[in-house]
Amino acid sequence: MSVLQRFEKRLEGLVEGAFAKVFKGVVHPVEILNAMQREAEAHKAILAGGRTLVPNRYVIDLSPYDHSRLAPYAAALAQELAQSQAEFIGEQAWTVYGDVIVEVERGEGLDTGMFRVTAEVYTGGEVAPVSSPGGYDPGPPAYPAYDQGGGYGPPPGHGGGARNVRLVSGDGRTYPLQMGSTVIGRGDQANLRLPDVGISRRHARLDFDGGQVVLTDLGSTNGTMVNGQRVSAVALNPGDMIQLGTTTLTFRVDG
After folding, report:
1. pLDDT digits (tens, 9 = 90+) for 15-65
2. Which of 3.40.640.10, 3.30.2320.60, 3.10.270.10, 3.40.50.720 is the CATH number of 3-120?
3. Boundaries of each FHA domain copy (predicted)?
4. pLDDT in tens, 218-229
């Protein structure tokens, strides 16, 4: 089931079908999500290491008439749009800063049934352009939280210190993870080198922002598995089993 199909299915059961009545004959939520996906595609920026940064904040301007009709459901719609956009970005293995944010606003001058989407990279304190010359790379990125509010430590800038996260191999070896990015592989450029011929030289990357760890496959020959499922990019949960080649690593969080 595609992101759009999942989004439509969730909308069907939301506030007892009120969305169908609200949007009948005017702008439809699926059209908004389609536009958000196009904005992400249009504003891609290549970061160091070949990662692709896309906007994480989307402002939806609706016509005054549509906005007044939608007002009771704006918060619920924004949450559903944010979740679906995070799923879409995750499926593309793109990078964002923090959570995906969607805001529904009143757009003066727009005719009924019309809407406008503005996309930008939002780092928490300021808006960063994604089309600056040479690309934009303000530091180690976070990824969308697929559980919408999960994580296992305080988010960056909120104090309390990051928890102790580590990988444990089947033979009991422990590999602590530091803040930032850790490349796993068997080549000289890997931060965590594993003597497994089934692992690529640069096989996968772990990004730890203090709040969560995201595992990204780096186009490896044999792929990366988490709990038996092949993944391109996924936020890890304590106890997850990662398999690279013939090596199995368990993700652990202490404290």
Report:
1. 444 455 555 555 678 888 988 999 999 888 887 677 888 888 899 988 898
2. 3.30.2320.60
3. 182-231
4. 888 889 999 999
| Residue 162: partners with Cβ closer than 8 Å, 6 or more residues away | 153, 154, 179, 208, 210, 211
Amino acid identity, position 13 = G
Distance CA 160, CA 115 (A): 41
Q: pLDDT (tens digit, 9 = 90+) per residue, 65-116?
A: 888 888 888 888 898 899 899 989 988 989 887 788 999 999 888 888 788 8
Residue 149 is encoded by which pair of tokens?
Answer: 């509010």
Collect all residues with Cβ–Cβ distance below 8 Å to 197 and sequence separation of at least 6: 186, 245
CA pair distance 225, 216, nearest whole angstrom: 10
- The pair of structure tokens assigned to 33 is 């999500």
Beta bridge partners of 247: 244
CATH number of this structure's domain 165-253, picked from the four choices 2.60.120.560, 2.60.40.3500, 2.60.200.20, 3.10.180.10: 2.60.200.20
pTM listed for this prediction: 0.49
